[in-house]
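Lab notebook, bench 4. The sequencing result for the construct came back, and we need a structural model before the next group meeting so we can plan mutations. Quick request posted to the team channel:

Model the 3D structure of this chain.
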Amino acid sequence: MIDFGNWLMPVQYSGIVDEHLAVRSDVGLFDISHMGQFIVKGPRAAESLNRLLTNDIGRLSPGCGHYTFLLNETGGVIDDLIVYHLRDEEFLLIVNAAKADEDYSWMRGRMSGDSVEFINRSAQHAGLALQGPRAPKLFDELFGVSRPARNEVRELTRDGVTYVIAGTGYTGEEGCEIFLPADEAPALWNRILEAGAKPCGLGARDTLRLEMCYPLNGSDLSPARTPLEAGLSIFVDLNKPEFIGREALLGQRAAGIPARLAPIKMTEKGPPPRAHYPVLKEGRQVAELSSGTLSPSLGFGIGMAYLPAELARIGEELEIEIRGRRFAATVERKPFRKPAP
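Done. Here's the predicted structure in token form:
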């Protein structure tokens, strides 16, 4: 157990590799109750959110969700989050635990006068993530309905309990997220485990997401880096007339993006790479890893680093320094592992 975003969280239950492989081959269950949950509703909810977030809320139909960013004035990432359009004039935002209070204060201060209702329901609601090839079948058996498709969201009520079910995920596998009242979560957790899911902790979450090159806020994303540098411009709509950080991003794009978040694979056997290990080119340090691990599925070390733009090319040969030794590595194509079809 470790402190994570002011929550006490399990690193592992049966073991990181065991949990990782269960998600890749069968089904795993993650407790994501630490994630912040905000409700934004009112006639101007979409307009207000569109001025704060990088993706275009106007393209988000009721029953759908998408990934987006909350930026500071210089275009740096305060947080990455998911917005679900629950119904007309009502949205659910899922934000990172360590950023929940900051996000709420930042957004509330910039929504004042917009005549929207902004509710932080984090303490009253929990979340579970069911992930793996068998996740859809298990969900269907438990709830009697098919889970939402990718990036869809729906509400359903069972035995007087209202659930928000979302077809998103952080592992690259089939699955869904289930958001529900906190006092109902332990019973559902136990039901899902009894149905055969394996409980999974932070360790497996990290190895799974890194195989997919999904960024981690606080490591791969930070207020000092923009989504353009992170290679996530697909989630930034610069055609929108207004959002915080837009002018800075336009300026960076015009000047040339100086560094890019690149996937790096170790091509020489060695200890697992970790965040902050130096990345070298011809003996000179050019970056440091923002994330790193040994891939349980692939059997080699993987990581990501912000490389100078001229070095962030697929096939570029590099070295990673680990405990005073240097090991060969190359820049790879995203993702390290292909997602489930």
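The mean pLDDT is 96.
Will bring this to the meeting.
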